[in-house]
Design a protein that fits this description.
8-stranded antiparallel beta sheet, 20% helix, single chain, alpha+beta, 15 strands, 2 helices, 193 residues
């Protein structure tokens, strides 16, 4: 009889442990379900990287890089070109092209279908900020940056979006050594499905 009792206690303890472990696992899984995350660039991470642009029929990804401006350290979104051995990020700062190799973060997701591009412009985006979850991508001097893209011929060009209530608002990038500033563009949002 005491054997039976011990057996029942053992089984119920095991059930409790299993449900706790499983509960812990699903909770952890839920915690990771912020939809997106920034990860240190490694070429193996490309499988989870958010595709955003295309240049000459090659995918371009979204990166985040530290930029030192005088005594300030800024975080700026840029365009990642993933080659087999190394990654290169290019970004626009003060209308100039900047390039960094390997030392940057890349936007990743476990839920690619939660990433959505929405057509907007410098006026409508202010309303979008309240209605949708725009993916924040760094910040400059008293500015927040978001991720944008525009169609240019056959290419989809990635860049940063600034919403600041001044003439610098909109989409900024550099393509073929030319600075581009547009007031109509697409912006990247995270949409729970």
């Amino acid at each position: 009889d005491s054997f039976k009792m011990k057996f029942v206690i053992l089984v119920s303890t095991l059930c409790l442990v299993v449900s706790m472990c499983d509960g812990g696992h699903s909770h952890h899984h839920h915690a990771h379900h912020i939809g997106f995350f920034w990860d240190d660039f490694k070429s193996s991470k490309i499988l989870k990287a958010v595709k955003g642009g295309r240049v000459n029929n090659e995918n371009r990804y979204i990166g985040l890089v530290k930029h030192v401006d005088g005594d300030k350290e800024l975080l700026i979104p840029g365009v990642v070109e993933a080659q087999s051995t190394k990654g290169i990020i290019t970004y626009e700062f003060n209308k100039q092209l900047q390039t960094v190799v390997d030392n940057f973060k890349i936007l990743c997701t476990d839920y690619p279908d939660h990433m959505e591009w929405i057509s907007t412009n410098t006026n409508d985006i202010k309303q979008l900020l309240h209605e949708k979850e725009l993916i924040p991508a760094g910040s400059g001097p008293e500015q927040k940056y978001y991720i944008g893209r525009i169609q240019s011929g056959d290419d989809l060009l990635l860049g940063k979006v600034v919403i600041d209530n001044n003439e610098g608002d909109g989409f900024h990038t550099i393509s073929n050594s030319k600075y581009i500033h547009k007031t109509n563009f697409e912006v990247l949002i995270h949409e729970m499905k």
